[in-house]
Write a structure and sequence with these properties.
Blueprint lengths: L1 E5 L6 E6 L11 E7 L4 E5 L2 E5 L6 E2 L6 E4 L9 E11 L2 E8 L6 H9 L4 E16 L2 E17 L23 H10 L16 H18 L4 H9 L4 H13 L16 H17 L15 H11 L9 H10 L4 H19 L8 E6 L5 E6 L21 E6 L2 E9 L1 H6 L2 H29 L29 H13 L14 E6 L4 H8 L18 E4 L8 E5 L7 E6 L6 E4 L8 E13 L5 E4 L4
Parallel strand pairs: 1-10, 5-11, 6-11, 7-11, 12-19, 16-17
Antiparallel strand pairs: 1-2, 2-10, 3-9, 4-5, 7-8, 8-9, 10-11, 13-14, 15-21, 16-18, 18-22, 19-21, 20-21
Helix pairs in contact: 3-4, 3-5, 6-9, 6-11, 7-8, 9-11
Length: 619
């Protein structure tokens, strides 16, 4: 039987006892239970461990119409499964007679009580104040006053001191308030009404069964292995001996047992994730995680049926069309399984098709679609010598900035009813991969236009301009006789770039060479590392520059960029809540299948011209 009290600070503590099925009366639907005992129960508060002892003398029995709940759930009227008809106190224990409801939804609980499979009983009580003392070095807290609030039937008995009562004569029921009147007479000096006596008999077989059950409960509560309980039972240990052995074992334990939570196979979120992984593999191939392999053989119809079953919908008698329609447009997680799988496939295709120019950029995460400014701070100049007066000259930093804003790009996709019924995963995978590739192509078009379009910055001058020193005076095609000299000139120009103050050298170190497909071979030859036989054959660019090839660059122009970690020239950004391509399901009753949309919140722009150099080539 599980007792729950609520002290003034709101903390909830539980005690347990056991119902007595032998007192069950099927005609009146009543049963007698042991509701509370005065046995010590170990608790813990801010001051440490203490023993709690409920005292029947301080129990306020004036409460009437005390409800009987189903496992302390008292939130709705359906949670009330009966009422307490009366109390009685016997040997320091509080006993109560419960009358269960005849309502149809309470019938399963009544059946379990009648057959003896539901024996746990729990009380909810409130404590007004505590009395604290020390007994044999142990803190003991007893309530100055406490009252009953509810009694519950529960499947989790845990108090080894409480047990099932076996009665040989009809139980004596004392109406609520009788014991209270008796207490008042005693306090006023009058003759007290004697406590009602409940005749009990216990057979040796029942006593032995109770001893074994309580020993196993003691061992389990102490966190000890089941073998310990078997040893104590074989040794004919008493309950006191079992408690002492359990206490000694907990004191000598070298390390606490740490329990960790792991995802279970019946967790709906875990099932959805694993089914999505398996479906993504069926759509686009690849390696399937070990925990998802059990779902590889499931068709779309199978996934729809299991999703409906998890949401409580029976599919027996439904044909394939009905199952898929109900799963697609109902409350099951089938659309989520499909959209998650599509998202994985689209993301893989999106990453595989990413534009190489993104390597030259610094990524930003933006909170909204407003214009975002990248501030470019000037340099501090030089430290100046302090004069004899000790005065320090103050200076300021020049600053400039470029703006960019996010835009949303989207397309829709209909997963037809025929595709679902035919279970054509290859077609669905190809369609979803196209979503990812379309997102990558969109980003690439924007970035290439930024580089090749040579837009004006906030100062009114183009990114690549002779006045900035980052535009070659004469175009030289890579692979021609003068290409090595032209590349050397580009490096020198970037090394000589100065800051906003016009004085401080930035020394932008070239790291990337960006070309179109027509110059790829020539660039590879120019950057190839060779083992020279003499100093004239030394390749000064071997291992110094990384080649990037962008197929959308159609002319002979080539670009040199600094490391974006040192001096970023380009920046791209995503919305914080939706980074990269996103797949979402849209509600649409105008289609018999599923309707999805792919969208991309993306923006890009220049942030600094000093880390980039352009040679227009032989065009």
């Amino acid at each position: 039987m599980l007792d729950v009290y609520t002290p003034l600070d709101g903390e909830t503590i539980q005690r347990t006892a056991t119902a007595a099925p032998e007192t069950w009366n099927p005609k009146t639907l009543t049963v007698d239970v042991i509701a509370a005992t005065e046995n010590a129960v170990q608790r813990r508060d801010a001051a440490g461990v203490y023993d709690e002892r409920l005292t029947m003398a301080t129990l306020d029995l004036r409460a009437v119409d005390v409800p009987v709940y189903d496992s302390h759930r008292g939130g709705t009227a359906r949670d009330v499964i009966g009422i307490v008809e009366g109390y009685r106190i016997e040997g320091g224990n509080l006993l109560a007679t419960l009358r269960l409801s005849q309502a149809e939804d309470v019938a399963p609980v009544v059946a379990r009580v009648a057959e003896g499979t539901l024996t746990g009983v729990s009380i909810g009580y409130a404590v007004a104040a505590w009395t604290e003392s020390v007994v044999d070095g142990v803190r003991v807290k007893t309530p100055k006053a406490w009252g009953l609030r509810e009694i519950s039937l529960t499947p989790n008995p845990a108090d080894p001191a409480s047990r099932v009562r076996h009665q040989s004569t009809p139980p004596v029921t004392v109406p609520v308030g009788s014991i209270q009147n008796s207490t008042e007479q005693t306090q006023n000096g009058g003759a007290a009404m004697p406590d009602p006596v409940l005749e009990t008999t216990t057979t040796p077989e029942v006593a032995e069964r109770t001893r074994r059950t309580e020993i196993r409960t003691i061992v389990r509560t102490a966190g000890l292995p089941a073998e310990t309980a078997d040893d104590l039972i074989d040794q004919n240990a008493t309950l006191d001996q079992a408690k002492a052995a359990a206490f000694d074992a907990t004191q000598t334990r070298t390390a606490p047992v740490i329990r960790t939570h792991t995802a279970q196979n019946d967790d709906p979120a875990v099932i959805v994730r694993r089914q999505s992984d398996a479906l993504a593999v069926r759509m686009a191939g690849g390696d399937c995680p070990a925990e998802a392999q059990q779902y590889l053989g499931e068709s779309m119809l199978d996934l729809a049926r299991t999703s409906l079953a998890r949401s409580g919908v029976a599919t027996r008698g439904m044909n394939a069309d009905d199952v898929l329609t109900r799963a697609a447009h109902g409350t099951s997680d089938f659309p989520l399984v499909v959209s998650n799988a599509m998202g994985k496939v689209a993301l893989d295709a999106y990453k595989a098709a990413e534009c190489p120019i993104k390597t030259l950029c610094r990524q930003r995460i933006l909170p909204n679609f407003k214009d975002s400014t990248s501030i470019r701070l000037g340099e501090m100049g030089r430290l100046e010598e302090i004069a004899e007066s000790g005065e320090i000259t103050h200076t300021s930093r020049a600053e400039n900035g470029e703006t960019m804003a996010l835009k949303t790009y989207a397309r829709g996709l209909n997963v037809s009813r025929n595709l679902l019924i035919n279970d054509d995963m290859n077609l669905l995978g190809d369609m979803t991969s196209a979503f990812g590739e379309a997102a990558a192509q969109t980003e690439a078009d924007i970035l290439v236009e930024l580089v090749t379009g040579n837009p004006n910055l906030s100062d009114g001058t183009a990114v690549f301009d002779a006045s900035r020193g980052n535009l070659s005076g004469s175009g030289v095609a890579l692979g021609s006789v003068g290409s090595e000299s032209a590349l050397d000139e580009a490096r020198k120009a970037m090394r000589r770039i100065k800051g906003l103050d016009g004085k401080t050298l930035i020394s932008a170190t070239p790291k990337y060479l960006l070309v179109g497909p027509d110059l790829e071979t020539a660039a590879e030859k120019l950057l190839a590392t060779i083992q020279p036989n003499n100093t004239g054959d030394v390749n000064p660019f071997g291992g110094k520059l990384t080649l990037l090839v962008e197929p959308r660059i159609t002319d002979d122009s080539w670009y040199v960029f600094a490391d974006p970690a040192r001096l970023p020239s380009l920046v791209y950004g995503y919305l914080a809540a939706a980074q990269g391509v996103q797949i979402q399901r849209t509600e649409a009753w105008d289609t018999l299948g599923l309707k999805y949309r792919a969208f991309l919140d993306f923006g890009a722009g220049w942030t600094d011209w000093r880390g980039a150099y352009l040679n227009e080539g032989d065009s």
